[in-house]
Amino acid sequence: MPDTPPLSAAPVLAPYPVWPPEGARPLGVPPFLDAGDEVMWRYRDLGWRPGRPESVAPMRVVRDDEQGLVAWLAPGTVQLTKRYADGSDLRDVPMAERFLRDAQRVQARTRWRGAGILRIAPAELPWSVWLFWDVPEGDHPGDPAAHDRWTFEGWYVNLETAHRRDGRDTCTGDHVLDLWIEADGTVNVKDADELEAAVEQGRGTAEQAEAIRHNGRHARASFAAGDWPFDESWTRWRPDPAWTTPALRDDECWDIDLVD
């Protein structure tokens, strides 16, 4: 990816639309949720319509205000993801046909197996920032007694549609290309080949792909500027020990159950 642009150049906010609920509002617009409230973080595909598979993560609100939404995905969270009927996922399919099989995907109930993730979605920006920590071997990631032993690993910048809010839902759509920024500040571009394959297989246009790359350059500039999602204080954040793990709502549906 070329050198980062100046932040004065406005990002392209919507390379392609993602269906939000009627009346949904941008992040940063009240009413806001309180810290500790539950929020459903939803990823919907290009062209998504009600009833189609989506990724849904029940999360705890850390902060919700004019700057955006901060939420916590707890270890072991039961969530919804998009899979194929045999349980395989997108990355199990060869790149040459990965996006040709989108219509074959179904809704699956799964469990998040990793350590927790702090996600920060800045208002009206086309990415979210995910903070990852390493939990020492032998420590359970959900044990508050181990919090002081966590080591910050880095920031994952997920390029995506600017979020739209509807009650306790926040809706976005993944843009394929991502950044991984190591704790020492080294920036790595992820899935550039997958973005090219998405264009070749009709998932998006060359113009949309370039808009996504453009947004990626702005995300790099935001990191270089030390903007709010990348403030060092977030690397020292820890979840409230009193929080329980949120669950999927009773009205959620799935086709296959992969939770053991």
Brief characterization of the structure:
The protein is mainly beta and 260 residues long.
Q: How would you describe the overall organization of this protein?
A:
- There is one protein chain.
- The protein is mainly beta and 260 residues long.
- The chain has helices at residues 192-200, 206-224, and strands spanning 25-26, 38-43, 55-65, 68-73, 78-83, 106-111, 117-122, 127-134, 151-160, 164-166, 169-172, 174-182, 187-190, 256-257.
- The strands form 2 sheets. It has an 11-stranded mixed β-sheet. Strands 5-6-14 form a 3-stranded mixed β-sheet, with no helix packed on it.
Tell me the helix content: 10-25%
The strand line-up of the biggest sheet is 1-10-11-2-3-4-7-8-9-12-13
Name the poorly predicted regions: none
Largest sheet: 11 strands, mixed
Question: Total number of helical segments?
Answer: 2
Rg over C-alpha atoms, rounded to the nearest angstrom: 18 Å
Q: By helix and strand content, what is the structural category? A: mainly beta
Calculate the terminal CA-CA distance, rounded to whole Å.
41 Å
What amount of the residues lies in strands?
A: 25-35%
The number of strands is 14
Order of helices and strands: EEEEEEEEEEEEEHHE
Overall form: globular
Q: Would you tell me the overall average pLDDT?
A: 93
